Amino acid sequence: MNRHERSVASPHVVNIEDLRRRAKRRLPKAVFDYLDGGAEAETTLRENCRAFEAVTFRPRNAISVPNCDLRTQVLGAELSFPAIIAPVGYSRLMHPDGECAAARAAGKAGTAYCLSTISGHSLEDVRAASPGPVWYQLYLVGGRAAAEAALERARKAGFSVLAVTVDTGTAGMRERDIRSGTAQLMSGNPLAMLPFLPQILTRPGWLAAFLMDGGLHALPNIVLPGKGPMALINVAAALAESVVTWQDFKWLREVWPGPIIVKGVLTGDDARRSIDIGAAGVIVSNHGGRQLDGVSPTLRVLPEIVRAVNSQIEILMDGGIRRGSDIAKAICMGARAVLVGRAYAYGLAVAGEAGVSRAIAILRADFERTMKLLGCASVSELDRTYVEAPKDWLISG
Fold this sequence. Notes:
Layout: H1 3-9, H2 16-26, H3 29-36, H4 43-50, E1 56-57, E2 72-74, E3 77-79, E4 83-85, H5 98-108, E5 113-116, H6 123-129, E6 134-138, H7 143-157, E7 161-165, H8 175-180, H9 182-187, H10 190-193, H11 197-201, H12 204-212, E8 219-224, E9 228-230, H13 235-240, H14 248-255, E10 260-265, H15 268-276, E11 281-284, H16 298-309, E12 314-318, H17 324-332, E13 337-340, H18 342-374, E14 387-388, H19 391-395
Parallel strand pairs: 4-13, 5-6, 6-7, 7-10, 10-11, 11-12, 12-13
Antiparallel strand pairs: 1-14, 2-3, 8-9
Helix pairs in contact: 1-18, 2-18, 5-6, 5-18, 6-7, 15-16, 17-18
């Protein structure tokens, strides 16, 4: 066990915030802000977490729950507990093992991993790393030809679900990234990086690992016809030229044989549209507060989506999950499972696979403890009767 693994195994690491503090100490400011920050004033980023404070529990006491069944079924796959490891763009910047480490930890924990199109490792290597279900999250960066080639590779590699992100008509205004020099770091241009070198040089552990990994890599899952893999620096501009529309789903159903879920649903109307285009599920998501600032926190709009879907397709949710009790609240409010992003990425930044495993273990233990304290023996029994939510959440939309 190296010192980073010992760090996350420390008795002082008891929650996700402890991992966040360690990630902040290890990463250059530009990389930490890329992971930790949100759009504009970061109102939605904060409210995603605060929304869980507005929902309170209604436990059944004087009940013995020696064992809890944490398992759940999501899109035909059995998961060990209802938390999926979410796509985090270019995780290789946080740790050289990046997406492979996260997928490996998820599979060992018995849950699914969703790979971002903006990945530092090839989808074949990521699929091979996990013994569990692996999903592919799609941006249309590079156009349909590049997407079709990636989807064929994903199908052959054994990816089971396609998650199509619909909230990236352009990149959000992430002010922290501009101030801390994230774009300059990712450019690979020494002159552009020069003003930001002090923050990199003060993180020698990260810098050594970054250089030993060969620095920045092109994106292996976005292969442009006649040009090869897309450079990482081109992504922000490419997003503005690769808007996913509802009309694109007809084509996607023709080229992808498995289930498709729509990621970025925040209104009942969009949930119903997702049903109309043949989606197997939706992910209630505001992109972790990284796109349009000022939209509702995802937990707040979950009841509207539940009413609109009316049990016709599966509902997942992301945004603001930092504790196992947050997972329980989301399930009680109608989600089948949640996706966690920053919570595991902090662990990845600190100690690679061991850090992701620690984050998952923290969330799982929190969730099981919450269920026992609620007097609930099975995930399948969690429902609205276990929580109290603001009344206006239940009637709006």
